[in-house]
Here is the input.
Amino acid sequence: MKRMRAFIKLCQKKKTNILDTMKRKTKSPEQVPSEKRAIDYSSFEQQALAALKDDPDKLMGKDGLLTKLYKQLLEKAMEGEIDHHMLYEETEVKNRKNGKTKKTVRTTGGSFELETPRDRNNSYEPEIVKKRQVFLGGEVEKKILSLYAFGMSYKDICEHIEEMYGVEVSPALISAVTDKLIPEVESWQNRPLDECYPMIWMDAMHFKVREDGRVKSKAVYVIIGLNDQGIKEVMGLYISESEGARFWLQILTHLHNRGVKDIFIACIDNLKGFSEAIQSVYPQTEVQLCVIHQIRNSTKYVVWKDLKFFMNDLRNVYQATSESQALHALDELEKTWGKKYTVAIKSWRTNWSALSSYFKYSEHLRRMMYTTNIIEGFNRQIRKVTKTKGNFTSEAALMKLLYVATKNIDKRWNGQVANWKLIAAQLAILFEGRFNLDQSLQNIGVDY
Here is the structure.
């Protein structure tokens, strides 16, 4: 009898526990996860119409109706994604859902917390809202990169974005957005190049970069090429400790590996060993030293009271119409100033073979050859963007800014250089067998 009573009590206890468990598991509609319930569009429509009459601003913003709908639609879509992924996933170990992670995403209409599903095998890669993506729609990211390309500081960008879109962003978030450029920069830096470049200009700029807790000066090597269509392009940007012929040799080798097989004329400054480095990779290339660099180097020995008169005589040398006329002007310069400024005159004599290459070409080619104005113009535009930066936090930070600034400059370059058809015809004669005139004119849409 006692056993019977104990058994009845046990059954009653289990029944109570079962009922309690069922009550706990029963949830109100508000408690049901978003993926388990359908979106009530009719209710949303009524709320939206009421908001339009009452206060249209309630539709947008962090707690706006449109923002809530956007959140629900994204979460439903991501649930469909993970279901499809697990249905067609081929793995030895059976996969299953493994809860959700939360992250704050930002849109031009406001920010909200998005629940992203995840799986046990960690093989699910969201497509609608990718991992580490914090901006939706792309407009805000594009604006950040645009402001960054003009050299604005992270603080100024934060304030500008908040003012324009009402979206709060942090410097760390902006850094994450700009870091997406790094793979793009690497791809651009190693892209294939044309086989033939009639002319290239090479120079270096210097920037301050923080490294190992110290600020160091870094040289940025710039190579601009004129392709066989007469269009300028930045062939590459390279960072090194300092400017030197040995590193230029590595760069030229890299250009060769990227497909550049022939260069007709290389315009450079008078860096020691630079010419030898070029001709070790491209033995047929003619080297033209920048006359403007040469003038600067020689006039630094001239005192101020003589400078105007010295320059008037020197102008007869580099503006001569032929090499023989230029040599005669140089002799006259030496007669007048040789005793007082021996070093300045000697510098012209020593470098004459590389300084006088441009005399054999027509006026149109000379204008591009005897100075590095093209690359110096590029450098000036880069300086406008970087002038607000005291120093860069890393080489990667420097390269990111140089890359986006370069892309902006490239957009402003207006097609072909002046008189390209005439220059192309002259190149075909001067570099017979190396320059394909027919192909060049066809590439620019001219029948020949």
User: Anything to note?
Assistant: Strands lie at 97-107, 110-119, 196-211, 214-226, 232-240, 262-268, 286-289. Confidence is low (pLDDT under 50) at residues 14-37.
